[in-house]
Design goal:
125 residues, alpha+beta, five-stranded antiparallel β-sheet, DUF2958, DUF2958 domain-containing protein
């Protein structure tokens, strides 16, 4: 798994995802990372790695169909996302969460997509 860290997350982000998973999955963690598909509206707002299966991430998953939901996604599946011209899944390097995941979930359900805009998130904080 360590060889996948540079593409999907920094070492610090990976360690934080692991620590969140070990603290408990019932905690309303602050998201660690936002992954996006540059040629599509799919995105993942990730909070933790399952402590007993380090290939599985937990977070808010938005496949771009208007129904974002909290769920699981495999790191291996994320690594397989690739456009025919070679584009890959991207980590938003500038994303810094300011709210716990529940706020992002409420806003996403209201809008039908993940948002990181404070204007959209504040009413649910």
């Amino acid at each position: 798994m360590k060889d996948k860290i540079p593409h999907l997350f920094t070492k610090k982000q990976y360690n934080r995802l692991l620590a969140n998973g070990q603290k408990g999955l019932d905690i309303d963690h602050i998201p660690v990372i936002l992954m996006t598909v540059p040629w599509h509206s799919a995105s993942w707002l990730l909070t933790a790695i399952l402590p007993d299966n380090k290939d599985i991430l937990i977070g808010l998953c938005d496949l771009g169909n208007g129904y974002p939901e909290v769920g699981y996604v495999s790191i291996d599946e994320l690594l397989q996302i690739e456009h025919p011209v070679g584009l890959k899944l991207e980590r938003n390097k500038y994303f810094k969460a300011t709210y716990p995941l529940s706020v992002y979930v409420k806003a996403a359900r209201n809008l039908g997509r993940i948002t990181i805009s404070d204007v959209d998130l504040e009413p649910f904080a």
